Amino acid sequence: MTESHAPHRHKLARPLCSPFAIVMGLVNVPCEASRPFTLADDVELTYFGDPYSGLADAITFSPDRRYFVVNTERGRLDISRAESTLRVYRSKDVQEFLASMETTTQPRPVWSFSKSTYKDGPIVTSLRWLRDSTGFAFLSKTASGSDQLYIADVKRQRVRALTPEDQHVTNFDINDHSHLVYSVLSPSIRERIVAEGGSAGVVGTGRKFINLQFPIEIVNLRWYDLNELWAVVDGVRHRIKDKVSGSPLAAHLGGRQLALALSPDGRSLVTALAVSTIPLSWETLYPPPYPSYPFRIRAGRQDPEAADGWDNVSRYVLVDLQNDEVTPLALGPIGNAAGWCGHSRAAWSADSKAVVLANTFLARDAENSASAPDRPCVVIVDLLRNATTCLRQWKGATKDRGYEEGTFDIADMRFDPHDNNRVTLDYIYREDVRAQTYMRLSNGSWTADAATTELTEQNQALELVVRQGINDRPVLVGTDKTTKHSGVILDPNPQLKDVDFGEASVFTWKDKTGRDWVGGLYKPPRYVHGQRYPLVIQTHGFSEKEFVPSGRYPTAFAARELATAGFIVLQVRDCPIRTTPEEGPCQVAGYEAAVEELVAQGLIDRGNVGIVGFSRTCYYVLEALTTSALRFKAASITDGLNEGYFSHIVTVDSGASDEHEGVIGAAPFGKDGLRLWMERSPEFNMDKVATPLQVVANGSITLASMWEPYAALRYLKKPVDLIILRRGTHVLTNPAERIVSQGGTVDWMRFWLQGYEDPDSAKSEQYRRWEELCDMQIEQNRTQTAFCVRSKPH
User: Fold this and answer.
1) pLDDT by residue (tens digit) across 706-722?
2) Pairing state of beta strands 124-129 and 135-141?
């Protein structure tokens, strides 16, 4: 947005100290920050929507565009819970604000309410307006952590529940109060486990290890995904049953989320169901992205009513809600089963006669396999003509380069509400969301309409955008597209106006193979040119378009907190290679090249480098510790993969075992297989680790995956510390758990790289434990410089 496109702007009531704010004309002069950024600031930062789950959109317009809802999420330290706030604005009020030359007070919502009913967030997700724009439905967490379906009446400003509190709703679609469908976690899961708890023995054959190890108290959506389907038709609620068995129709969350799409007439449902038998021909008719890709379709029987069916092979079906009759659509399986990653989504035409589906193969047969693409598509299904058309073929992974150029995922799909011959796909391309429209020609075929565009609210008077950047905290900006007037509608973080965040910038470099790398470089607030600082490398992605103080995820990472403490932090975007033996070495090559470049630029001290891993990048950190020439002074890994033997063997009967074998290059059996595991698995090379390692498990379940590296170093009498967050989620949202996780990373790095101990008496036991590790490190490195530096005599 340039000055020529915005002849006048509104000033913020409380100015922003950022380059973006100045460019936008929101402040006249920069203001001086008065205090440093803290971990509490990070935890209590308000985000628009939810940047991690993808289930909470920031802005949702009503179908008639008279209203819009803004969904924000934050952590509250005072009650140690996450909190969601919904603000309902009248579009007319915002346009009048933008039209006024005098008004500086931001427009107020006509209705707002907050929910902080559970310790973990996001609290409010999956918001959808009713077709008549009188209200909206959403999921909200209960005190037990289940998701309950609610409906909000905008005129009466009243919220009421549509489902019982003891049902955990996993997805829904809704037309109005009398026509909706939803899925709930099957109560049979708990019934089965209760029955098993009272028996002398249970059958474990074919079941996943994780579901045989832990008690009923932890039963939740993370580990079980058998769902029942419910419908309300003409105001009458009923559970959808299988017509043959009379049992509740079973569905699973294959494709990341259960697809549910209710037709506009309220009579039909499109969803995805597991097939009971996978034909042998499907192994070749529906191939993975490349021949050696570990995830693929394998023939055989599968249980459509399994309590955990994440990896089931599924296909789209049509359900007649009048009689519960289920009809498979004339398509092949959903692409996820064959390794083509993406969301399962469906959307109807306004006349309920056609549906658009994401990530599904067209039907193929061995005799005429060339008649349909050998990869999934976004497909139009004409229900009247029983015809299918591939609008756009899916992109997938390549063996050597990671994901194909132009890889995308569908963010949304929709028919034009006034023209059934037009379909628009919103898709994620790199870090942008773009839109592509397709038109149906007179002969029934479909064609793309002109070039793709950046996604905007096309042909609408009011445009809303969340503006943010690596140094600019998020604000909601409105633009009147007729007058080109712009202004800030909502600044949800005025408490940060006087905070000195330091400077972050995009950092690029090349590794020894010539591969380009991108990361975010965070410098201390009072950075001194020419001074060499300690470096902490944070892994697992980077976005230059978002304001994320942690650097990436709120688990383990603490970029701006570390920068405030005197570190330079490099947040690294991962190498795109996946599930091949080159995955780990590619990451390590990037880290090594980054250190060399930062040393060459005079920014860091080569001998004072730490590294942090989370989730998949725990493996990358262990790979670096066991193979790299870099001498890391400290490392931390939280809640992730380690490519160890135990981690592999417990994934039998799940797709994850294929992934481990892809990374190492073989199964850990036989002479050749064992040789590769001995060479390539970090767990068989922990004797090479000379770096103090912090190991953190988010909950007792994931302790199993984090135990192997901890136990190996403990056995070898090398410095290692184990922390368990008792009920932590993978991506942490609970304020208290974030303090432990992110604060623990800061304390660990400061102890080993700066020789600093926090004087807080509550941490005295922590430092006593680490001092013993320091003694151990000194003892093991008598002929070398000690890795740890004491802050006080010992």
Assistant:
1) 999 999 999 999 999 99
2) antiparallel
